[in-house]
Amino acid sequence: MDRKIQVPISKEDAKSLRAGDYVYLTGTIYTARDAAHKRMQEALDAGQPLPIEMDRNVIYYMGPSPAREGRPIGSAGPTTASRMDKYAPKLIDLGLGAMVGKGKRSQAVIDAVVRNGCVYFAAVGGAGALLSKRILSSEVVAYDDLGTEAIRRLEVEDFPVIVVIDSEGNNLYETAIQQYAKKN
Predict the structure, then answer these.
(1) Are 51 and 31 in contact, with CB atoms under 8 Å apart?
(2) How many CA atoms, within 13 angstroms, populate the side-chain half-sphere of residue 84?
(3) Closest C-alpha to 176, from 119, 52, 101, 165
(4) What pLDDT is recorded for position 150?
(5) Which residues of 146-181 are buried (b: 16+ CB within 10 A; e: fewer)?
(6) What global pTM score does this model have?
């Protein structure tokens, strides 16, 4: 099913999505990769506030290439999500509404998704140039010294993603394999 969702994502929208749904995100999302996640964990460990609010927000695991003249961002393809798995459960428990990346997630992340009514989306790897066309603006909001791994606020319109893990723990990577095996 195709859905248009306003982000930050509401609890109701997150819970209504099912693994396999095609979704178009419009609104504000944030980027963060390995180094930014490590810094956020260090801040939490030190009892310091995070540089961005987690409540219902969406984190896109992406580090952009430099923007061409007249564009807000360069190629903006997803990063392998499992690299953030050691940090993600804590952020989900703090209210993170959704994550966008590519690839499988650990059982600890899946458990946190179910526990908190969150969702994991995949963006198409290798389509970074096309995905960047759905990004209207990009602004570094934290950890500027990390360069492409800085946290950015992105304004997106009809940003295409697929629900991989829904709030009930249904996992498209598993169900798609089962469906394919039945056809052969």
Answers:
(1) no
(2) 31
(3) 165
(4) 97
(5) beebbbbbbbbeebbbbbbbbbeebbbeeeeeeeee
(6) 0.94
Pair 158, 23: CB distance under 8 Å: no
Instruction: Indicate the pLDDT class of residue 96, thresholds 50, 70 and 90.
Output: very high
pLDDT digits (tens, 9 = 90+) for 134-170: 999 999 999 999 999 999 999 999 999 999 999 999 9
Q: What is the pLDDT of residues 153-163, one digit of tens each?
A: 999 999 999 99
Give the CATH number for residue 161. Answer: 3.20.130.10
Residues 26, 30, 34, 36, Cα dihedral to 10°: 180
106-135 as b/e, with b when 16 or more CB fall inside 10 Å?
eeebbebbbebebbbbbbeeeebeebbebb
Q: What range defines the domain where residue 160 resides?
A: 2-183
